[in-house]
Amino acid sequence: MKIFVFLISLLCFSTLAASNSEWEGLILTKILHSISKSQIILVYSSDKSLTNEFKNSDSIEIVKNCKKCDFILAKDATVTSCKKPTIVFSYYAYLHTPNAIGVFFWQKGRPTIRFSAKRLKYFGLQVKGELSKFVSKND
């Protein structure tokens, strides 16, 4: 009986740990759909783990050129050659990247999301739905 409980606990723990990237993909999909006006969203990212999250998506297409995208997802480095709305993954990058309309990062095991009202307005974008409560007027 103890072995059974241990195996179930191990299975649950490994499922939770493995699903972090899946959760990230779901949250990013929700973020992109709450901002975008189009049905198919063109996204550029140089990060392979992010592009793998959207391989099987019907509504998000990964492009290889940042000039052809709707949004940039910048996890490690910022793309300065393209003046496109960017979602970054650290608060420091959010404060120091002029095109960063939003930030998504994990803090104490919970997702943290924030959008800049001023930068969204600059790009003519608006956050719709339940994520609109994460728009900050102070940034």
C-alpha termini separation: 55 Å
Shape: globular
- The number of helical runs is 5
Number of strands: 7
Low-confidence stretches: 1-11
Task: Explain this structure.
- The structure is a single chain.
- Helix 3 links the parallel strand 1 and strand 2.
- Helix content is 37%, strand content 22%.
- It contains 5 helices and 7 strands; from the N terminus they run H-H-E-H-E-E-E-H-E-E-H-E.
- It has 139 residues and is α/β, with parallel strands linked by helices.
- The protein has helices at 2-18, 20-35, 48-53, 91-96, 117-122; strands spanning 41-44, 60-62, 71-74, 86-88, 100-107, 110-116, 135-136.
- It starts with a helix and ends with a strand.
Highlighted features:
alpha/beta; seven-stranded mixed beta sheet; 5 helices; globular; disordered N terminus; 139 residues
Structural topology:
Blueprint: H1 2-18, H2 20-35, E1 41-44, H3 48-53, E2 60-62, E3 71-74, E4 86-88, H4 91-96, E5 100-107, E6 110-116, H5 117-122, E7 135-136
Tell me briefly what this model is:
This protein is an alpha/beta fold. It is built from five helices and seven strands; from the N terminus they run H-H-E-H-E-E-E-H-E-E-H-E.
